[in-house]
């Protein structure tokens, strides 16, 4: 059987590819297990500074394999109590989603759990939870509104309509749209830029940005200022 996940490394970047193209990279327990293992492996590897997630074939990920919905443990596939949101959240390294085609429902949630998205011109997104009658569970209702605002999130999730890459760019869902053949090259270019900066400060800035997700604007700014004062004190003490 072909590997369900392809894992390669290049210039301090791990490229994780969902590799079930005959099923449009639909998710079952085994694929989720291998995806989570790959992310954890990259997170623990001192040589890896960034991660790219993409799909093989014409789809990024078509969501849950409906045949596995009642037979597989999709919420806790490894039996360790860590689901998709936890695995992505616990990874300290930036995860870039390189969306090469359809990202539907559960596949859309994989994309939303990434730090940011680069899309090919062939990318398309849809939240069809309400259409197919499946309860969301990997962050859709919170991460989508965080990305595009509550009103747009309601339209996308309640109408269950597909949006193409150009509209995804307009509403702020993706950062860039590039030709299909340039998608991975562009994602790697950004990953290389991230890998080239001061890694300790990069991690600090990433954490400060994400701190806003769990606290008020005032408290988040205060935390940044507190860190800056400590930074200056250390510089003065070193003189």
Observed structural traits:
single chain; 239 residues; alpha/beta; 2-enoyl-CoA Hydratase, Chain A, domain 1; 2 domains; six-stranded mixed β-sheet; 10 strands; 18% strand
Question: How would you portray this structure in words?
Answer:
There is one protein chain. By secondary structure, this protein is of the alpha/beta class. It folds into two domains: 5-195, 2-enoyl-CoA Hydratase, Chain A, domain 1, CATH 3.90.226; 199-238. It has helices spanning 29-44, 84-90, 106-113, 129-132, 140-148, 150-159, 165-170, 183-195, 199-211, 217-238; strands at 5-10, 13-18, 50-55, 59-61, 95-99, 102-104, 116-120, 124-126, 163-164, 176-178. The radius of gyration is 18 Å and the shape is globular. The model has no long low-confidence stretch (mean pLDDT 96).
Helix and strand layout, with pairings?
Elements lengths: L4 E6 L2 E6 L10 H16 L5 E6 L3 E3 L22 H7 L4 E5 L2 E3 L1 H8 L2 E5 L3 E3 L2 H4 L7 H9 L1 H10 L3 E2 H6 L5 E3 L4 H13 L3 H13 L5 H22 L1
Parallel strand pairs: 2-3, 3-5, 4-6, 5-7, 6-8, 7-10
Antiparallel strand pairs: 1-2, 8-9
Helix pairs in contact: 3-5, 5-6
Tally of separate domains: 2
| Largest sheet composition | 6 strands, mixed
Rg is 18 Å
CATH architecture identity of the largest domain: Alpha-Beta Complex
Class from helix and strand fractions = alpha/beta
- Shape verdict: globular
- Subunit arrangement of the protein: single chain
Q: What is the percent of helical residues? A: 40-55%
């Amino acid at each position: 059987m072909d590997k369900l996940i392809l894992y390669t490394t290049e210039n301090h970047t791990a490229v994780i590819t969902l590799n079930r193209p005959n099923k449009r990279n639909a998710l079952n327990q085994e694929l989720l297990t291998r995806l989570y293992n790959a992310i954890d492996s990259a997170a623990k590897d001192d040589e890896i500074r960034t991660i790219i997630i993409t799909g093989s074939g014409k789809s990024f990920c078509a969501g849950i394999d409906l045949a596995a919905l009642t037979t597989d443990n999709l919420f806790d596939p490894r039996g360790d109590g860590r689901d998709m949101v936890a695995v992505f959240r616990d990874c300290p390294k930036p995860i870039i989603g390189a969306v090469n085609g359809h990202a539907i429902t559960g596949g859309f949630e994989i994309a939303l759990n990434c730090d940011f998205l680069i899309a090919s011109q062939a990318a398309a997104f849809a939240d069809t939870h309400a259409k197919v009658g499946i309860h969301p569970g990997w962050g859709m209702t919170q991460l989508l509104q965080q990305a595009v605002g509550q009103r747009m999130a309601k339209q996308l999730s309640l109408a269950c309509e597909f949006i193409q890459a150009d509209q995804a760019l307009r509403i702020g869902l993706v950062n860039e749209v590039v030709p299909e053949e340039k998608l991975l090259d562009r994602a790697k270019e950004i990953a290389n830029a991230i890998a080239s900066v001061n890694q300790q400060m990069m991690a600090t800035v990433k954490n400060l940005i994400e701190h806003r997700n769990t606290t008020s604007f005032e408290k988040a700014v205060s935390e940044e200022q507190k860190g800056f004062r400590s930074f200056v004190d250390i510089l003065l003490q070193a003189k």
